[in-house]
UniProtKB/TrEMBL annotation:
Pfam families: Ion_trans. This is Ion transport domain-containing protein. It comes from Ambrosia artemisiifolia (Common ragweed). Keywords: Ion channel, Ion transport, Membrane, Transmembrane, Transmembrane helix, Transport. One of its GO terms (cellular component) is membrane. Gene3D superfamilies: 1.10.287.70.
Amino acid sequence: MDTDSPKLSRFEIEQPPSPKKKNKRAISQSLTRVFSEDYKNIEGSIFDPRGERVKQWNKYFLVAALISIAIDPLFYYLPEVNEEEMCMDEDTSLKIILTVIRSVVDMFYAYHVYVRFRTAYDAPSTRLLGRGELVLDPFKISQRYLKRDFTLDLLAALPIPQVMTWLPFFDNSEMISTKISVLYFIIIQFFLRLYLVFKLTSHITQETGVVAESTLAGAVYNILLFLLAAHVFGACFYLLAIVRQGMCWKEVCNLEEPGCGE
């Protein structure tokens, strides 16, 4: 027996790659090149959805959205009770401050709409193994955005609180019911922006794995959401208290002079 001959074992036998694995590897390598050479020519006007620029903007916009949903309930504190004259008054200084801050935040929403119009997307027909070829045609990008999320983003970007609280009938109306009904429209946009915050949070989590890069920032983010919920509840409670005060004055007025509270 030749003891010098190498011994073969099943661990030393080189297995040729199966055609199935070879095809998967080829597909995976081709999908890593999701950006064609044409993308370099339009890299100023079309944004890469997985690029650092878009990721950073999503985080900045998330901060602006959180500020927005914290500002909107403060409009509920505009009506106030004037006990000396026994009437409903309005905090003009607070309204000016809220209008300025809300207008600045609305600029982020307007620019976010522009970014969405210029952000490429993966073609569904080529989306294999989680990635696909990017669609870089501005017309197709705009058409897709108009059919999907444009309406919600546009409604969220409208300056509804600023416009409605500065309308002449809101300032001149002596009926508390008229002023309160105007404020009810704000809560509709508030819940719309809150929905977009959760949607954006889910998108950032899918792209990067986490919303915040550190554990401390993630804990602060979750606590902030809890505080926002308490903030909204307090603003609604204050508004309901103002409504109750107005209803009491109407009842007293009707007792002394029927029809005066209408």
